[in-house]
Amino acid sequence: MTPPPTPAGPVPVPGNAAPRHARPSRWAGRVRAVALAGLAVACLGAGSVGAAALADGTDAPVATPAPDPVAAAPSPTPTPEPTPTCTPAPLEQRAAATLVVGLPGVRTAADPLAQEVVGLGVGGVFLSESNVGTATQVAALSAGLRTAAGRPLLVSTDEESGRVALMRDVVGEGPSPRRMAQRETPEAVRARAAETGAALAGVGVDLDLAPVLDLDDGPAGGVIGDRSFSADPATAADYGLAYAAGLADAGVTPTMKHFPGHGRSTVDSHETSSLVTATVDELAATDLLPFQRAIDAGAPVIMLNHLQYAALDPDRPASLSPRAYALLRDMGFEGVAITDSVGMGAVNLRWDFPVAAVEAVGAGADAVLTTDGRHAAAMRDALVDAVRTGRLPEERLSEAAARVTALAGGDPVAMSCLDVELPAVSRF
């Protein structure tokens, strides 16, 4: 959630695929070859939408008002219609499966809010400081939630080390990512993250919303600041992938964030929005490189931030922008795309929780994160209504529900009649 002297050369994490260094120039070349006025965002093919996603705002003005992202939602992975031999789960269940929600103040699975959200069928829960007393208590909470759910359930938290460490009472204090990169080798960071992952797994957490792949060498206390491993793309990628690999070694799924890069903004999106004016060429040469490395290495989950990008969609945060999701898929990502919390000001001051859920899934999100599960029922109902009224394609919702279900260890075919294969975390 949005609230590193240089090592002796990158140390590859075993299993990493070679970075596709030629891709940024290919993206930039495609942008220059396509006039924005001729793009049809409503096209559902990954190639055409991917090209639209990369249109540089300096080439031609963005038409206003902006296209309805629900009606124009990209579908990078075509999904088949259910067959007579397969009946998907009820629409309400598929809608709930796309939600990952927080439980403010909840310490036991018997709490009414905990019982409400698992009864709705949410895809996952998010644990923060208010849920943490002792390791024994958190383990009992996680186990109780899964028992009440009666199905695979993601239990997530935000443990970056440093100042964003929601489970520090369980895993202990740790250095900031910037300090790790200044003082440790990638192998040491991997080992450190494996210890963190083991502590998280020991209390039932199986999804960590870390590491940060944003580039930042500004003041340590900035919005990203020392949460970033480095302002150098290669260093940020080396250390970010090492941290991710350590979590995966312990059986915890890492989440790369905050796509397409938060380091260029000094604005706290918890409070308000900000426009990043970098061109596609600039993003491709810097901010996007760590994410491309992560995708090539098999990143299972990527979080999108709430900044607006002039080169993509100047009027919508990336988390609600079809062009941002199309860019992510065009880079080769096949995992779960999750939003940053839609309760943050950059989104919530313009779109309330139910509307934000519809906008995000329609744009291409698979999972919608909110730190406040009291909005879960309204968000689920809004998704159901959007499908029934034709504002959200049912196949888009089914695809999202299938991916989140697969991530949780459930059966995506039973959920959506779709056989979804996510990237293999072991590739780290």
UniProtKB/TrEMBL annotation:
Keyword Manganese (UniProt): no
GO biological process: carbohydrate metabolic process; peptidoglycan turnover
The keyword Hydrolase belongs to this UniProt entry's keyword annotation: yes
Domain Glycoside hydrolase family 3 N-terminal, chain residue ranges per copy: 113-406
Low complexity bias (residue ranges): 63-74
Record's keyword terms, sorted: Glycosidase, Hydrolase
First-tier enzyme category under EC: hydrolase
A Pfam entry, by short name: Glyco_hydro_3
A GO term for molecular function: beta-N-acetylhexosaminidase activity
Region (Disordered): 1-24, 63-88
Pro residues: compositionally biased ranges: 1-13, 75-87
E.C. designation(s): 3.2.1.52
Family of the protein in this entry: Belongs to the glycosyl hydrolase 3 family.
Entry protein name: Beta-N-acetylhexosaminidase
